[in-house]
Amino acid sequence: MSTPFYVSPQQAMADRAEYARKGIARGRSVVVLQYTDGILFVAENPSRALHKVSEIYDRIAFAAVGKYNEFENLRIGGVRYADLRGYTYDRDDVTARGLANVYAQTLGTIFSSAAEKPYEVELIVAEVGSAPEEDQIYRLPHDGSIVDEHGAVAVGGNSDQIGSYLDQRHRDEMTLAEALGLAVESLSRDNNGGERQLTAEQLEVAVLDRTRPQQRKFRRILGRQLTRLLSAESSAAAETEESTEDSASADTESQE
Amino acid sequence: MDFLGEHAPGLLPGNRSLPPVQGAVELPHGTTIVAATFPGGVVLSGDRRATMGNLIAQRDIEKVFPADEYSAVGIAGTAGLAVEMVKLFQLELEHYEKIEGAALSLEGKANRLSTMIRGNLGMALQGLAVVPLFAGYDTDREKGRIFSYDVTGGRSEEHGFAATGSGSVFARGSLKKLYRKDLTEQQAITAVVQALYDAADDDSATGGPDLARQIYPIVTVITDEGFRRLTEAEVSEVARSVHERRLEEPDGPRASLL
């Protein structure tokens, strides 16, 4: 009989975390940010059919990065949880907090069970309130912890860099076009400081719009509407080009 | 529904046993629902009365519900069961749409409702029937369509107009004389309000527009822009003008003899 090598629990957990992080870092990022009328989700995703951002319930949406089959599984679980809750009790009784807790439990259990490999996913669960102060955004890393976020948040490959870029520039009361412009700007920055051009075809954009008259606040922004919003922002950005260039050069200087 | 059946079967309407009953049970019943298509969409409308035997159980019940963005259900029959069935139906359509990422086809929705009514047959035979009318805008064929049902879930597509409930006989007769294929949206709305007026005129279980209490029929319109319920002000305008004309001609507009 062979005796297994002793591995300290710290080491085992660190290995698992490392494994999950690497898997997540391979994918493209998703950014989520608040704007005046709701919450905006922007993902770099060339596919029209395989979504990274989707609706869970009336006011709740879900964004994920990592392995598709794993987060799709979690998404379906979330939709079932929410629909069952809403049917049993009331539509108002389905909250992002409850859903985030369920996800945290699931991810945490999988992460620490020795029998399964940890999920290589990072999730965002967001709920739009009747006013910006009531918006909730939760980030759920691979190990089952929950982080309560405000303003803007990024997950996925380049999330640290994109996150700090967003934090510096995001402010409350942005319009949809401004927020979208900022999100696309942040996504199009490469690890090594270069920029790529992201077109409407490469983006998956959705909003939780609190001004929507329907009960279901989730709406995808597609095709012409997206192009229009993007061009509206770029023409506005052209005017402020100089000032942003200044601040950008200041950034690189400070990094040096 | 399958998911609910697996995980919480107690929540499904069909899975609860009924105590044996003697004779008819007196429970609130909904009454008349009418629908009419027009080029570009469909109008679905219902009166507001619920009866319990010879009593009026409720004056302002709502019997027309959106099923999803492009369809609506109007219910006649046992109110409690019908509302529950609609709730489950709404849930299923929404659930399917979210899981699959695309909405069911209108035929698919109509078939699903048919299965649900069939599931209620046991109750229906004990006197607790639910007979809905389903109307929606078919985004593939780009027109409004109406489906009617019987208690066994038998589904049939209606062309032009349809009615269900106790006052349906009178409503259908009225629509038969008023309906034309080329009605505008506004004319179709007036036609269904006329039909409900006629139904209320001859059927005690159907409520007419209650001008004193400001209770008017529920009128919904489904077009390519989706489901829209007319505001109370809009319906009251139509109902009042219909009522006004009826003060002069109590039997309503006359069709030509030949």
From TrEMBL, chain A:
- Renumbered to this chain, the Low complexity biased-composition regions fall at 246-256
Cellular localization per UniProt: Cytoplasm
Q: How is its activity regulated?
A: The formation of the proteasomal ATPase ARC-20S proteasome complex, likely via the docking of the C-termini of ARC into the intersubunit pockets in the alpha-rings, may trigger opening of the gate for substrate entry. Interconversion between the open-gate and close-gate conformations leads to a dynamic regulation of the 20S proteasome proteolysis activity.
InterPro entries for the chain: Ntn_hydrolases_N (IPR029055), Proteasome_alpha (IPR050115), Proteasome_alpha-type (IPR023332), Proteasome_asu_bac (IPR022296), Proteasome_sua/b (IPR001353)
- Matching Pfam families, A to Z? Proteasome
User: What pathway is it annotated to?
Assistant: Protein degradation; proteasomal Pup-dependent pathway
Please tell me one Gene Ontology term that the record gives under cellular component: proteasome complex
Q: Which domain of life is it from?
A: Bacteria
MF terms from GO for this chain are: hydrolase activity
Q: Where is this region: Disordered?
A: 232-256
Cross-referenced PROSITE patterns: PROTEASOME_ALPHA_2
Q: Which UniProt keywords apply?
A: Cytoplasm, Hydrolase, Proteasome
Among HAMAP family, the record links this protein to: Proteasome_A_B (MF_00289_B)
Q: What's the stated role of this polypeptide? A: Component of the proteasome core, a large protease complex with broad specificity involved in protein degradation.
Task: Tell me its family.
Answer: Belongs to the peptidase T1A family.
What binding partners and quaternary form does the record give?
The 20S proteasome core is composed of 14 alpha and 14 beta subunits that assemble into four stacked heptameric rings, resulting in a barrel-shaped structure. The two inner rings, each composed of seven catalytic beta subunits, are sandwiched by two outer rings, each composed of seven alpha subunits. The catalytic chamber with the active sites is on the inside of the barrel. Has a gated structure, the ends of the cylinder being occluded by the N-termini of the alpha-subunits. Is capped by the proteasome-associated ATPase, ARC.
Name of the molecule in the record: Proteasome subunit alpha
Supply the gene name: prcA
